[in-house]
Amino acid sequence: MAIRFSHTFIRRTFLVLFGLIVILAVACGAAATPVPTQAPATVTPVVDASGLKTIVATKVLDVGTQRVAFLLTSPKALIKVPEVQVTSAFLGEGEAASETKMAGFHLWPYGVRGSYVTEMNFDRPGPWRLDIVVDGQDDQGKAVALFDVAEQGNVPNIGSIPPLSRNKTLQNTESLEKLTTDFSPDPDLYQITVEDAVATGKPTVVVFASPVFCTSPTCGPQTATLSELKTKHVGEANFIHVEIYDNPDEIQGDLGKATLSQPIQDWGISDLPDWFNESWTFVLSGEGRVSQRFEGFATLEELESALQVVLPQS
Questions:
Q1: Which of 165, 233, 299, 302 is the most exposed place for a label (fewest CB within 10 A)?
Q2: Where are the alpha helices (DSSP H) in 239-293?
């Protein structure tokens, strides 16, 4: 008797298996060096004597208060202690504001991976360092990340008004297969353009992602998480998934056939050096201004907190 599995089962199984592969690679000593995605905001991992290493998810860093997300690994596994201490230090000439924050751990769906998240204020461009201290019951040590902060990047930052893109929707496209690589897409995420969403005066959450081709250590099921967020706030905000590729129905597993969607180009994401298909999420206020942005995977908890900031307060 033939056994048939649903697309959702296959997708979840793939993500879990991929996460296990990442952990096994760490345990075997495989390098997990992040690839820089914006000049000059390169990120360099430094391995401490304790063997801890950072996998930085937020590689695009500009002057100002920025969300910083990173994974921590030991020679054996991913670090999952509830909090770690993070201290910033400017390495260029002159004095700059240094601060110490606690970064909380956010477990990702399926319980395989998770990242630490905090907000740091970078008051000037140039070289910076993050000193990370782990003091858990079973895991202790230090990790360091070296990187450059840009004066201003091309991707819409907090406080800016991004392009009012006219992304493809079900109103102007004949099928979901032409809108997304998702195996089990949520039709509600393809009902409105960014331009029309802003015109409603409601907050908007926009996810740029390619569900099938999400394979880096800092990439997770962002589109599925967006759908969960939508379910909690039906009618309160607009929720949009924009596929990274313009022709998902034609790719058939061969990215050599892929062309980038216009919004990915409009928002400056495709201009990032060495960028492949990492996801980006933007939370817009009712007037269309960026209230928060997330590079790489953001958990439901993070998206919920960011959305609450721009929802009308009763």
A1: 233
A2: 248-251, 262-266
Beta-strand pair 114-122/126-135: unpaired
- CATH fold for the domain made of 176-310: Glutaredoxin (3.40.30)
Q: To the nearest whole percent, how much of the chain has pLDDT over 90?
A: 64
Q: What backbone phi and psi angles, to 5 degrees, belong to 228? A: -60, -45
Side chain identity, residue 110:
Y
Spatial distance between the Cα atoms of 131 and 133, rounded to a whole number of angstroms = 7
Long-range CB pairs of 220-223, under 8 A, 24+ apart, other chains included = 220/15, 220/108, 220/109, 220/113, 220/279, 220/296, 220/297, 221/11, 221/15, 221/109, 221/110, 221/297, 222/279, 222/281, 222/297, 222/298, 223/180, 223/182, 223/185, 223/186, 223/189
10: number of Cβ within 10 Å: 12
For residue 190, what are its two tokens?
Answer: 């393809």
d(Cα 248, Cα 243) in Å, to the nearest integer? 8
Tell me the pLDDT tens digit for each residue of 123-178. Answer: 999 999 999 999 988 888 999 988 889 998 889 999 999 999 999 999 999 899 99
**Annotated domain spans of the chain:** 31-149, 176-310
Residue 298: C-alpha distances to residues 223, 225, 243, 278 (Å): 10, 8, 17, 12
What is the distance between the alpha carbons of residues 153 and 71, in angstroms, rounded to a whole number?
23
Q: How many CB atoms lie within 10 A of CB 288?
A: 18
CA angle 220, 122, 37 (to 5 degrees): 40
Average pLDDT over residues 32-43: 37
pTM reported for the whole predicted model: 0.82
Report which residue type is found at 309.
V
CATH class given for the domain over 31-149: mainly beta
Model pLDDT, residue 47: 54
